[in-house]
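ok so I'm stuck.
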Amino acid sequence: MAKALCEGVFMGGISEGGGDMKQIHPLFQEVEGYKLSDFIPPDSLHLLVDLSQEVRISAVEKAIRRRMDPQKDEELLHWFRLLKRVYALVLIGGSGISAEMAEKHIIPTALYNFSEERKMTGTRYRTHLKQLYVELPDAFQEGLSVTPVFALPKTKTWILAEIADGWNPEAYPVEDQLDCLLFLSMAADGPVYVWNHPHARAFVNRTSTYNGWKEVRKCVRDLLRERAEKYEAKELASFLQNSYLKKTVRTCLWHAFIAKMMERAGDVERLQALLSHISW
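replied:
not stuck anymore, here's the structure
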């Protein structure tokens, strides 16, 4: 009965032919074959419909915190996907776009003329993910209480991919791009030892006994290789100048930078000239 109630929440609308129609609430819309109502308790979704945006976010965050258990990877992932939908609802309000388009454009693009407040939605969403990521638990090998092992792989890799989307030439504001890149760098290789750095303190307790999980390093490498295609060589070079970047991210950026420089003859010549001045 609860599921029927959940799926029966509608919004009024007008069909293209001019007649009345009923549209399902954006919270429940299917995106790329995925329906939140198939995985989240229907009563939870139904109750979120009538809440304000901030209360919705708080309610989903509380649900996530209650499930921060190394054994609840699948369940946590669904609740994080709900968190994304809740943030995306800000973009839907008054615009007439679907949940699918809102989730896709949670990073603002030229496609929509969002207000300043809406443009910041993606930044707030990714900031929230960063805060929650560093609180996710890792497991301990049975009988070896001092040897942590990687836990929640689906949830963590999904979150890292969402944060990596913030490293995008279209991200707003520009500072968000670098912040996302620095977060990925610390997730992969541990914190920088500069205590006033925005993410160093968050990571130090997680990584004091290891130099980043190999699973995370592989995930970050794969994400950056894909997203680096969106940048020009000069933009990649500007990121490489940041002293806080660590090994995994710096290596990926160098590879991407060299690949970009090899695309045009003039760039190849400049790259060769640069390398000729390096003392090997």
